[in-house]
Amino acid sequence: MNNQAAYAQQQDTSNAVVTVSGLTKAYAGGKTVLQDVALSISPRECLGIVGESGSGKSTLARCILTLDPFDQGELRLDGQSIRGLKRSELKRIRSRLGAVFQHPSAALNPRLTILQSLLEPLDQLKYYVPSFMAGKSSERRDTAEHLLEMVKLPASYLDKFPHQLSGGEKQRVTIARAISTEPDFIVLDEPTASLDVTTQATILNLLKDLQDELGLAYLFISHDLAAVHFMSDRIMVMKEGSVLEHFPKEALFHSDRHPYTQSLLEVFSTCCLPTEPILL
Ligand SMILES: Nc1ncnc2c1ncn2[C@@H]1O[C@H](COP(=O)(O)OP(=O)(O)OP(=O)(O)O)[C@@H](O)[C@H]1O
Q1: CDD domains recorded for this chain (predicted)?
Q2: Is 241 in the pocket of ligand 1 (CB under 6 A)?
């Protein structure tokens, strides 16, 4: 057994919020984009995924979010296999998942106020009262105000439209929306890639604080190796749809890393990392 297989086998998957095994997918008429992918994510844990463009990171995220079908393998969310689930069961499971993507402008309907956008997911769960509002007001506006407070935006933003917010503020709104239904697990697919460096750091810190406060598990996808190192407990490297290696984050800079991982580090340090591996 190689180190990689031994490390994967050490993961305790008994209470994992997400478990993927043997996941394989090809787009219609195209080549295989995911090949025998396996991973698990425990409660309160962050798994970082890195790999060059086109290596299948976002496709994997979409499969885990049940937004894309896959051809082979198994996906378990909160211990339950999604295979053969009824629509109502899938809807309930989906409400336990959150997602934050690269472009907040694309994620927010320009014609809706921040109040309307924020409450879209909760509106779909008709009788659900989030625990953070238990014993408090059941007014929608109060719930939305509380969500904005959690991402450090003032209540006055509720009546604004997305074009009146900066990129970082819009991303805070999408984060507030992602946590509104109290998911256990959130996919963060390049959540800071469209933001300037200072805003990137504040958003990453916010995501870390929310993870601690709410006990969230994350799947964090990024080309920014410093950000992945900062956010993640474990790191998985993907190449051409397969998992190349998988290690605790402390081992990112070890000399026995796969040559491909070392080449990612080299490219990153040349373009983005002049002195220190961690910017935050
Ligand atoms: N809807 C689609 N139809 C067909 N092929 C697709 C589709 N979406 C992605 N692909 C292909 O699947 C492969 C993996 O794409 P994916 O977006 O998952 O990679 P990625 O690692 O997330 O890339 P990036 O870092 O650039 O976001 C690529 O070859 C891409 O062209």
Answers
A1: ABC_NikE_OppD_transporters (cd03257)
A2: no
CA distance 232 to 228: 6
Phi then psi for residue 29, to 5 deg, are 70, 5
Q: Does residue 183 form part of some domain?
A: no
Supply the CATH number for residue 16's domain. 3.40.50.300
The parent domain of residue 90 ranges over: 1-96+217-280
Strand partners, 181: none
Q: What's the structural domain count of the chain?
A: 1
CA–CA gap between residue 148 and residue 202 (Å, rounded): 15
- Residue 48 inside a domain? The answer is yes
- For residue 270, pLDDT beyond 90: no
ipTM above 0.90, yes or no: yes
The answer to whether position 245 is within a domain reads yes
Angle between the 114-124 and 167-179 helix axes, to the nearest 10 degrees? Answer: 20
pTM, to two decimals:
0.91
Asked if residue 253 belongs to a domain, the reply is: yes
**DSSP string across 188-252:** EESTTTTS-HHHHHHHHHHHHHHHHHHT-EEEEE-S-HHHHHHH-SEEEEEETTEEEEEEEGGGT
pLDDT for residue 280 is more than 50:
no
Mutation pick for ligand 1 pocket among 52, 59, 70, 240 (CB with most ligand atoms within 8 Å): 59
- The amino acid present at 151, given as its one-letter code, is V
pLDDT digits (tens, 9 = 90+) for 25-55: 999 888 899 999 999 999 999 999 999 999 9
